[in-house]
Amino acid sequence: ELKVEQNPLFLSMQEGKNYTIYCNYSTTSDRLYWYRQDPGKSLESLFVLLSNGAVKQEGRLMASLDTKARLSTLHITAAVHDLSATYFCAVDPLGNAGNMLTFGGGTRLMVKP
Amino acid sequence: DSGVTQTPKHLITATGQRVTLRCSPRSGDLSVYWYQQSLDQGLQFLIQYYNGEERAKGNILERFSAQQFPDLHSELNLSSLELGDSALYFCASSVEPGQGYNEQFFGPGTRLTVL
After folding, report:
1. pLDDT tens digits, one per residue of A53-86
2. What is the DSSP annotation of A25-59?
3. If interface means Cβ-Cβ distance under 8 Å, which residues of chain B face chain A?
4. Which of A31, A86, B26, B78 pairs as cysteine with B3 (C-beta 3.0–4.6 A)?
């Protein structure tokens, strides 16, 4: 059974600081997705990572994928309050007939002024 | 706005009842997925349909069923409801499964409360 683990589960940080969220998964995959969810809202797609070494950046967020280590990271640079949300990584394992996603437990990020 | 629509937004019902959740995928998307989000189980895949056919099943209870209609909208039926079924139910859609880059776009969700 595929397991996807994120850490930390909760992150409180000051504005202007940098931090990294980690996503480990237990099976072979070269397709990993990051989503953002605001409280009570839907999931917004942030990044799609499709190969080993993939790196994507959007504003203060940068995501990377290491398929050999089965690890993805979401790096936050100079955090601002607007980034406060819950971030999920999701894995689409190789050989998946469809592409249903297995989600990590989420990282709740709170950025304090 | 992802282009995926779900109705209703909120649903409050009693134990033992049956409800139907509806989803319309983005224009052009053939695949529909249903996910359940609850505090204790997190986000879990329930079931997937592609162009009217069931494609994959996840942790879906026997009391739950789904279908995708010729116009590609999908319905998730939940019956004999229990308190533990209270959750946020999301529908997502994508163009075609398993074809490399295949991003799923999520609807706004239906919040189900079982009293």
Report:
1. 889 999 999 999 998 999 999 999 999 999 999 9
2. ESS--S-EEEEEE-TTS-EEEEEEE-STT-EEEET
3. 2, 31, 33, 35, 42-45, 48, 50, 55-56, 58, 90, 92, 94, 97-98, 100-109, 111
4. B26
CA nearest to A88 within chain B: B43
Please write the tens of the pLDDT for every residue from B22-74.
999 999 899 999 999 998 889 999 999 999 999 989 989 999 999 999 999 99
Looking at residue A103, its amino acid is F
Q: What is the pLDDT of residue B107?
A: 97
* Residue A90 to residue A104: CA distance in whole angstroms: 6
Closest CB to B42 among A44, A92, A106: A106
